[in-house]
Amino acid sequence: MKKILILDDEPTVRHSFVDFFEDQMWQPIQAESGESALLLLESERPLAAIVDMRLPGMDGNEFIREACKRGFIMAFVICTGSPEYDVPDDLQALSCVSNHLFKKPVADFNELEKQVICTMNDIGEVSNE
Amino acid sequence: MKSTIICVDDEQIVLKSLKTELKELLHNDFFIELAESGEEAITLFKDIQENDGDVAVIITDYVMPGMNGYQLLDRIQSLSPATEKIMLTGRATTEGIIKTINATQLFRFIAKPWDKPFLRATVNEAIHSYQQSRQLEQQRQMLFKKNLQLKQLLTDKDTLATELTNSNASLTKEIAEHKQARDQLILLKNYMRNIIDSMPSVLIGVDVDGRVTQWNQEAQRVTGISAKDANGQSLSKAFPRLSSEIEQVREAIKTRLQQGDSKRIRKLDGKMLYEDITIYPLITNGVDGAVIRLDDVTEKVRLEEMMIQSEKMLSVGGLAAGMAHEINNPLAGMMQTANVMKNRLFNENLPANIRAAEEIGISLEGIHRYMDVRGILRMVDDINQSGKRVAEVVENMLSFARKSDSTYSSHELADLLDKTLELASTDYDLKKEYDFKIINIIREYAEGLPSIPCEGAKIQQVLLNILRNGAQAMQEAGVKNATFTLRIYLDSDQDMVCLEIEDNGPGIDEETCKRVFEPFFTTKPVGVGTGLGLSVSYFIITENHQGEMSVESEPGCGARFIIRLPLTRVGRSE
Q: How is B490-537 classified by DSSP, letter by letter?
């Protein structure tokens, strides 16, 4: 089964993502901070991650940067509750970061899954080249 | 003082006998002086004159050594014309006698040797004549003195007259000054009157008894009562609206403190008007009374309300930005969970669902039937609907924040409006409420309009909002032949583009018109509208674009929204 990391400090939100991806035949793994998520990447090697922005400790942006720096090839889809958040330019330039930004509450989970798969495909194309 | 008689003869003997003769005649009534020559007589004469004496008669011989009788008398005539002159001679020539008589006004001529009675009579007559002429002279002098006095008096009179004229002149001047002062006073009074009259406020002066003493033009205009008619009337009669202020007027006069009411509401033809009433006690000049000032502040109050509204929006925006994250997260927990729940309850194709049902030995069909009967789907949908509304409110509230305006670009309003119409006719939510395609659209776009700098998406949001409201209103009222008339044109000052959206729906009553842009104001039933749509629109136009937005409507005749956007970007007020 495809592994997907759910990074969100809010348990109810995290659970809803986990439950959804579980139903869609994914194997979700959970983390409530960027730091613990990085540790999980080493052991679990997920293909994708749903990333919240505001987190205790390092924020979502830093987590993505750090993950890329450490050479993990995976898709990142950002999902935030902050209305004024915009994806920083350096992350937008990366093909592993979905250019579709989801704002909470996410009304359409299917669209979310679609973006996850799309981004994974994008990476595949890039790495195939 | 006695007068003197001088006798002149070169012969001692003649002098002696003359003296004797005169003594007998005159006793001691006169001094009798003798001189032996003309020269001696002149000296004597001058002596007497210098001692304030007078010579009444001079009797002289004609032929004498030195000065003769004629020469002597000629001198005497010039020294004292009044002195009577008698010539006493035996040997005078006729020519000499005539000359003497003519030149010296000789009184009498007596031949030597003299006839005693004739001499006596002559001397008497001469004395008499002298005395008469003396008297005459005195009278003349008195007359002269009187004359002088009279002259003095006349001069005095002239002086007086001059003084009178002078004081008259100064009086005239004073009167002129007085008049000038009065004119100035009138001028000043008129000036003050003008000032009072040109005040846009109603200004009414009242005395202690509440009677009108002053009534300016605005008071006349408002009441239709002239100052002439109002003066002296009681306030409650002249200005019934102010009759309730009488107590305050008394209070103001008594306490010498300003009284007043601000933003007092009154209704006129169903309109709400606001006025400020201020009562100033008159504390100078010892005049007891007060001035009532009445100002219509309706416009000011409206402006204040608009500013308050704008402030309200901004504070809502600021608050929203801070709490959006805090709301969105639990909301996500709720809604996302509800979504997953719905999927687990109703999705018959979900392998996990099938597997779980099999494991506990229940058919999915049975579960569905149960949930159908118990209305669970509706409940889950209700949770989602409610969640959506919360999200919408948060989203709308966020629009009130002053965000960066980096997305400004050039757009043609006609283009934006057409795109919005297209969007409206395909919008799913909108279709549920109204089928947009059956609404007639009349376009009245002016040609050659310039494009304007704006945030296209924001303007579309505004237009969609207005169109949606209009469509809903027309549907609810069951309007047949529902029509939107859309106009775009350049305003008369050529610096704004105007866009009008007019419907033929039920219209908006005046009270609603006033509040339609207020945040959280809605006429829709609870649950349908958030009361934020139009206020967000208003905010986008006025705050984000420095434009203007207004609504005009008459109940029954549709509503018209007017948006005016500047042709060039106005400097931000921040």
A: E-TTSSEEEEEEEE-SS---HHHHHHTTSTT---SPBTTB-S-HHHHH
* pLDDT confidence of residue A129: 46
Residues of B in contact with A104 (CB under 8 A): 328-329, 331-332, 336
Strands B483-490 and B496-503: antiparallel
Q: What is the pLDDT of residue A61?
A: 95
Average pLDDT over all residues of chain B: 84
Partner residue opposite B325 with nearest CB, options A20, A81, A107: A81
Coil, helix or strand at residue B274: strand
Taking the complete model, does pTM exceed 0.80, yes or no?
A: no
Residues in chain B with CB shorter than 8 Å from the CB of A103 are 328
Determine the Cα–Cα distance for residues B401 and B313; give it in Å rounded to an integer: 8
Nearest by CB to A105, from B328, B350, B352: name it: B328
Query: Region B195-204: what's the mean pLDDT?
Result: 89
DSSP string, B171-236: HHHHHHHHHHHHHHHHHHHHHHHHHHHH-SSEEEEEETTSBEEEE-HHHHHHH---HHHHTTSBHH
For residue A52, count other CB atoms closer than 10 A to its CB: 27
**Chain A residues with beta carbon closer than 8 angstroms to that of B396:** none
- Grade residue B527 by pLDDT with cuts at 50, 70 and 90: low
CB-closest option in A16, A54, A82 to B340: A16
Partners of B345 on chain A (C-beta within 8 Å) are: none
d(CA A12, CA A33) in angstroms, rounded, equals: 15
Alpha-carbon dihedral B49, B55, B61, B65, rounded to 10 degrees: -10
Q: Tell me the C-alpha distance between A121 and A88, whole Å.
A: 22
End-to-end CA distance of chain B: 124
CB-based contact B421:B441 (threshold 8 Å): yes
User: Is the minimum CB–CB distance between A82 and chain B shorter than 8 Å?
Assistant: yes
What distance in Å separates residue A37's CA from the closest CA in chain B? 20
Judging contacts by C-beta atoms under 8 Å, the chain B residues touching residue A83 are: 321, 324-325, 328, 394-395, 398
Rounded CA-CA distance A118/A124 in Å is 10
Mean pLDDT of chain A: 92
* Distant-in-sequence, close-in-space partners of A24: CB < 8 Å, separation ≥ 6: A113
Shortest Cα distance, chain B CAs vs residue A10, angstroms = 7
Q: Which of A22, A82, A109 sits opposite B339 (nearest CB)?
A: A109
A79-104 pLDDT per residue, tens: 998 877 889 999 999 999 998 999 99
Average pLDDT over residues A41-47: 94
The whole-angstrom distance between residue B241's C-alpha and the CA centroid of its chain comes to: 28
Share of chain B above pLDDT 90, in %: 17
Cβ(B258)–Cβ(B292) below 8 Å: no
* Range of lowest pLDDT (A48-57, A69-78, B31-40, B257-266): B257-266
